[in-house]
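User: Can you help me understand a structure? I only have the sequence.
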Amino acid sequence: MENRTKQYLLVTVAGVTLFAALMNFSVVLRALGGMFELGIPILAGSILALFINVPMNGIEKWLRRIGGKMKNRPSDKMIHLASFFMTVVGILAVLVLVLTLLVPEIMRSSQSLYAQVEQDIPQWIAYLDARQIDAEWMEEFFSDINFDRIMQGITRGADTLFSNVAIAVSSTVSVVITTAFAIIISIYMALDKERVCRHANKLVRAYLKPAWAENVLRFCRMFYESFANFLSGQCCEAVILGILVFAAFMIFRLPYGSLVGVLTAVCAIIPYIGGFISCAVSIFLTLIYDPGLVVRCAVVYLVVQFVENQFIYPKVVGKSVGLPPFYTLVAALVGGKLFGILGMLFAIPFMAVVMELIKEDAAKRIP
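Assistant: Let's start by predicting it. Here is the structure, written out as tokens:
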């Protein structure tokens, strides 16, 4: 009787709370929004720590193999700290390398594009006139444009671009604070990941039934393994594809080979969409440089992508994710629609784990 009274009391309190929340829905939404804003640094730091942990684990295993052969074997703490600092230095080195290659190439490409467009304007107008197409609007449009002044402005502005961006970002105090806290949280989580995982394990086992706790922990282990394999394979595949595109553009004498190669390597980390973005950019640049090379550019790029998808991608990434192409595409589309690029990166390994669990459950149910 006493238990039934408690149940009735809980149901009554829940009903009154729900009714009050519905009657003050806007207030509840503002409160939830405020709580979400407070949790953004923790969420961003956790995601950043997850990305950092993938190369960090690989470096840590490599250091353990090397340390095992030494007479004075380094402690686990030393190996852990060394792997963290090597990971941070490696990430910063990659970012500096990409910016060092990309920014000067973009400036050179902009200047050459300007010269090419200015040189080809009379040819475009003559081409349209030969086919009895009114080109007066084009001639008036380009005659009003001072290309020299535009390029001078671009050149002068390039020197102060990053400083202006830094000033604009620093002026937004909330963004700076959120970013700083996210980075600090990610550093602490990466350095103290064993304790964080141990505490999370205890919380799950303390507040869930044993069967549910085991399922949740197993799902988390499977997701991290799938995510680590997917991310490492995707990054390696992106570098290989960028090198192949650069080499192909050099062999077939296509313009902007280094720029397209770097863009391809950066964009290829994004599943599916990245390849289309870099392909569209390369075709656009080639169209402005020389329309006669557009077909060659498209064919070369698509052939390189075909070779990479058929022969290199299976070898590099292999069956690490274990997800058929159709489900991979669906996961990428749904994840990208809901959460953008991060959603695409997380949705594919998430879908792989879900499909694996469904297969296991179906195998148990089928006699």
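Now, to help you interpret it: Residues 76-130 form the longest helix (55 residues). The two ends are 44 Å apart (CA to CA). Let me know which part you'd like to focus on.
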